[in-house]
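**Sequence with structure:**
===
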Amino acid sequence: MSKLKELLNNFSHAMENEAGFVLAVIVFIAALFALAIAADLSYRKNMKKINPEAAGYISSTKKITIVGAFSALAAILMYLEIPLFFAPSFYKIDFSEIPVLICGFLLGPTSAAVSEAIKILIKLIIHPTSTAFVGEFANFVVGCAFVIPASIIYQRHKTRKRAVVGMVSGTLISTVLGMFTNAYILLPAFAVLYGGMPVEALISMGTEVNPSINGMFTFILLAVTPLNLLKFGLVSVVVFLIYKKISILLKMKL
């Protein structure tokens, strides 16, 4: 256990420079896309065995159009940020994962990951980063950790029950990954890259909001964790309520 703690601490220190953060960005993005692509390939292989005609019923042109439209909508929703009373001001929630998740349910996890990436790129083109790219990276990684598992689970059997299982699973996975990435990547990188401040300064901002926050553990437990549970819980509810109607309309155009 002590060796694991030492390894994580060393990893956290590695994030306190640009090279370490860039490497983490590359590794996470590559891993997320590899997972999404592998799941899509497995699904298509199984579909060809079961129903060859249904395996590729959406053309590439239509996929690009759908992904582009949902990505643009997601980029717009990124600007509708809601501050939270239990977290520091640099933590806000948005609902940009709603169109991304619908895209994933319709087209699969790879399209969801691509939509998530395009959403971030559109946002950066319109409004350059104000968080040294740490905020955008956080939004992408934690967002993908939600939409990719949810899309993979739903893709196998497209029922309401599977949609709920997928969204609950995605919420839990993204919350756990958010805990790890905030503690060992995002907060250390943000503290250094954004202004050269110590991580303790960020934690103290959490203490001002909630006196019970007195260290990294309580910061993650009382600020980061409820933020992700709230965000992806609300996204799941909205998608559950609207997805079927939207998917019917879309499939009529395919």
Observations:
- The mean pLDDT is 86.
- The longest helix spans residues 216-253.
- The CA atoms of residues 88 and 208 lie 8 Å apart.
- Strands lie at 82-83, 92-93.
